[in-house]
Write a structure and sequence with these properties.
The chain is an alpha+beta fold. Helix content is 29%, strand content 28%. The protein has one domain: 3-Layer(aba) Sandwich (Kinesin). It contains 11 helices and 20 strands. The strands form 5 sheets. Strands 2, 6, 7, 8, 9, 10, 13, 16, 17, 18 and 19 form an 11-stranded mixed β-sheet that branches. A 3-stranded antiparallel β-sheet has the order 3-4-5, with helices on one face.
């Protein structure tokens, strides 16, 4: 019940081969004690965060240094926890959360490259084993594409699901599928499928190529892991249920705690002039930017409110409605800001840094 600030960490990706060949300068330099220095013509500024990870930082170091392990433990203890990555398109958000996109059933990524998601799953399952059989784990996975909420686990063509609100549950997605799992392989199968198999999980998520990113996410994706304590006689197994996961287990399961761990992979902000987008890509970009602006507006107001009761326009977008609890409610939130050090990306990098700096002033009451 104590007030706590959002934890915000920064990750600076290395210059890409294209940027190096083009002659881009590196304008972002990490300093000690969680600070970065932006040095360019007419721009000289220092920003501070809970932690800063430079281009040479390993995936494991990001997991440990960001406080992700503690977030997993808090979810097991019954708290609602959220981690989300944001930044310009091509800044490394999906890589930070999921690792390289080349991994599949037939070509697994090196363990050293696994992202925050897979490392958190392994940590969750370790916690489950240490608790005996009294923890039940389930997952739901959705995307927000062109302001439509779509279930990425439901079989068949993606269809829009209604977003509801109630006094007891806040904003929630009606009829969202929830799938139980009890092994690392089971949850990995939900997220990663070979390209020549029927689409499921992340393979159904909308991505496209443009001038700045060959695998640009065209939607915001939210993967939610529900952690429920239950009696040892509870039934374990891989099954699917259409019941909203927030309704909790049946009385026979003797629940004592119900936590949540939500991973939010935001689509990157982008300028149509830079990406060369047109037609459908341009429409997608406009919807992405509108929802990110709504999120930034909510964060700015939350940072200014100082804990006072202030109207926050969560209803301005589907994204802000689903993140309302994480940002200004009773959740615990970790934000991972991802930026490029390239001089060509300076404007978007500064925007992300200012955005992240404001978020550090937001407080919640877990």
């Amino acid at each position: 019940g104590r007030e706590t600030r959002l934890r915000v960490v920064l990750r600076v990706r290395p210059l890409t081969c294209t940027e190096t060949q083009r002659g881009d300068r590196q304008v972002v330099h990490s300093l000690r004690d969680g600070t970065v220095h932006v040095s360019a013509a007419r721009h000289d500024a220092i920003f501070g965060f809970s932690a800063v990870f430079d281009a040479g930082t390993s995936q494991e170091a990001v997991f440990e240094g960001s406080g992700m392990r503690q977030l997993v433990e808090l979810a097991v203890d019954g708290f609602s926890c959220t981690v989300f990555a944001f930044g310009q398109t091509g800044s490394g958000k999906t890589y930070t959360l999921m690792g390289p996109l080349t991994q599949s059933d037939t070509q697994a990524a090196s363990p050293s490259l696994l992202g925050l998601m897979q490392r958190s799953f392994a940590c969750l399952l370790e916690q489950s084993q240490s608790h005996g059989s009294d923890l039940a784990l389930s997952a739901s996975y959705l995307e927000i594409y062109n302001e439509q909420v779509r279930d990425l686990l439901r079989p068949g063509p993606p269809c829009a699901l209604p977003l509801r609100w109630s006094k007891t549950r806040g904003f929630y997605v009606e009829n969202q599928l929830s799938v139980d799992f009890d092994s690392l392989e089971a949850i990995a199968d939900l997220l990663l499928q070979a390209l020549d198999t029927p689409p499921a999980g992340s393979q159904r998520r909308r991505t496209s190529a443009h001038a700045l990113n060959r695998h640009s996410s065209r939607s915001h994706a939210l993967l939610t892991i529900h952690v429920r304590s239950r009696a040892k006689e509870g039934v374990r197994g891989a099954r699917a249920s259409l019941s909203p996961p927030t309704q909790g287990p049946q009385p026979s399961a003797c629940p004592s705690k119900q936590g949540m761990l939500c991973f939010v992979d935001l689509a990157g902000s982008e300028r149509v002039k830079e990406t060369g987008s047109s037609g459908e890509l341009s429409v997608e970009a406009n919807n992405i930017n509108r929802s990110l602006l709504a999120l930034g507006h909510c964060i700015s107001l939350l940072a200014k409110s100082g804990g006072k009761r202030t109207h926050i326009p969560y209803r301005d977008s589907k994204l802000t409605r689903l993140l309302a609890r994480s940002l200004g409610g009773s959740g615990i939130t970790l934000m991972v800001a991802c930026i490029s050090p390239s001089s060509r990306c300076l404007s978007e990098t500064l925007s992300t840094l200012h955005y992240a700096s404001r978020a550090r002033r937001v407080t919640t009451r877990p």
